[in-house]
Amino acid sequence: MVVGDMCFLYKDIFVIKAPKKSPMLLRTAVLMFSMVCVLVIFSVCLKQISTEAKTKFIDFKVIDNLTRSRVKQTHIPYLLHYPKPVSFNRNECAPNPVMFFTILSNQRSGSGWFETLLNSHVNVSSNGEIFSVRTRRQNASSVLQTLDRVYNLDWLSSASKNECSAAIGFKWMLNQGIMEHHKEIAEYFKHRSVSIIFLFRRNLLRRMVSMLANSYDRYAKLLNGTHKSHVHSAEEADILSKYKPFINSTSLLEDLKDMEMKAEKALEYFNSSRHMILYYEDLMRNHTKLKDVQEFLGLPEMKLTSRQVKIHKGPLSDHIQNWDDVNKVLTGTVYESFLEADY
Ligand SMILES: *[C@@H]1O[C@H](CO)[C@@H](O)[C@H](O)[C@H]1NC(C)=O
Ligand SMILES: *[C@@H]1O[C@H](CO)[C@@H](O)[C@H](O)[C@H]1NC(C)=O
Ligand SMILES: *[C@@H]1O[C@H](CO)[C@@H](O)[C@H](O)[C@H]1NC(C)=O
Ligand SMILES: *[C@@H]1O[C@H](CO)[C@@H](O)[C@H](O)[C@H]1NC(C)=O
Ligand SMILES: *[C@@H]1O[C@H](CO)[C@@H](O)[C@H](O)[C@H]1NC(C)=O
Ligand SMILES: *[C@@H]1O[C@H](CO)[C@@H](O)[C@H](O)[C@H]1NC(C)=O
Ligand SMILES: *[C@@H]1O[C@H](CO)[C@@H](O)[C@H](O)[C@H]1NC(C)=O
């Protein structure tokens, strides 16, 4: 049922009038009845409006300007879903609605950490990067089939909470087929009322360091011969952060711009779906942001936890081999603040 539709009902209720010549008792009863109805429906509408009023703005350096006026979230109604999985029975939770969501992000933007936080909620199943497997994103029809399985709760992963999931989704990196098949996917998201959490990292230079270090470790395997993208202890983080990548300063400005443009494009493709925009840095600084996320997903609020530990801490100058070049290239540009910022 579309909650939004109910908000039109109140018009009809105002039309209920007691007949002029009916006994006093009947008129009072009709009046009371219509007042109760109005109250109930207003409370539903208010709840809906407060959930949808989550207008977020993207504020990358350049994108900022382009989108501030555009990405005003309109009142996009969403459907509540009651999936009927074939692989198990939802049992006593069958009457509970399920929110469909996806996390759209980029590698090394905190999405792994964010997903472990979400999955610590008893009613969330976020199934990881299911489109990292190439055959699932080969063409639009294999993408849509995969989506159907996920949202029907028939995708079984270690994150599945099965019958009592109140929000079901996964994370999707922008380089995993979503941009290539954006037309069909945007249509699907709209049609099935999938809510989107855009998770971006403001400091793209830090993201670059993390990407280079991670891809170096794929070969170097600094942790006793095992490659790890995420760690759970300060010692492991220390070892991984010892490697200082070299950043190509010739292409740096171009590369940063490309990263921004890609994020902007994604926003544009999917701006007609219900969405919120989150920044890694804001999550790090302010855990109450997680309240907004839970509200957006229509979840009962809980304290969320993750065991993951951040790898690169402290000033960036400690983490880049050719710091002087990088510093020179970015100073005086819109990206200058990346040199200073924490996180
Ligand atoms: C923002 O947009 C305006 C108008 O297009 C332009 O004049 C201004 O230079 C832009 N600012 C930035 C920081 O890009
Ligand atoms: C789409 O990809 C799937 C999986 O790789 C393949 O089996 C199927 O034949 C493809 N369909 C089309 C229409 O190309
Ligand atoms: C959340 O999960 C718990 C435990 O499985 C369940 O009792 C509860 O009904 C679920 N809440 C929602 C909103 O689905
Ligand atoms: C690496 O192996 C040594 C010896 O087996 C062990 O003491 C140490 O904790 C391991 N370090 C990591 C980061 O796994
Ligand atoms: C740096 O980028 C430039 C321009 O893309 C390229 O020509 C050059 O080979 C790169 N240098 C290194 C060391 O990768
Ligand atoms: C979505 O982006 C398109 C292309 O830039 C734009 O025409 C449209 O107005 C945007 N829609 C919303 C709801 O912002
Ligand atoms: C933290 O986030 C909450 C929710 O988004 C916001 O209301 C609050 O102002 C933020 N606090 C700080 C210090 O940024």
Describe the fold and architecture.
- Residues 103-302 form the Sulfotransferase domain.
- Keywords: Membrane, Transferase, Transmembrane, Transmembrane helix.
- It comes from Cicer arietinum.
- By secondary structure, this protein is α/β, with parallel strands linked by helices.
- It folds into 2 domains: 3-50; 54-213 and 248-305, Rossmann fold (3-Layer(aba) Sandwich).
- The protein has 13 helices and 6 strands.
- Strands 1, 2, 3, 4, 5 and 6 form a 6-stranded parallel β-sheet that branches.
- The chain is elongated, with a radius of gyration of 24 Å.
- The two termini are 42 Å apart.
- The chain binds 2-acetamido-2-deoxy-beta-D-glucopyranose (7 copies).
- One 2-acetamido-2-deoxy-beta-D-glucopyranose is lined by residues 286, 288-289, 292.
Name the shape in a single word: elongated
* Uncertain stretches: 1-19, 45-72
- For this structure, the CATH topology of the largest domain is Rossmann fold
**Secondary structure tally: strands:** 6
Pfam families: Sulfotransfer_1
Transmembrane segments: 24-46
EC number: 2.8.2.-
GO molecular function: sulfotransferase activity
Throw out a few tags for this protein:
single chain; 343 residues; 6-stranded parallel sheet; 6 strands; 8% strand; disordered N terminus; binds 2-acetamido-2-deoxy-beta-D-glucopyranose; P-loop_NTPase
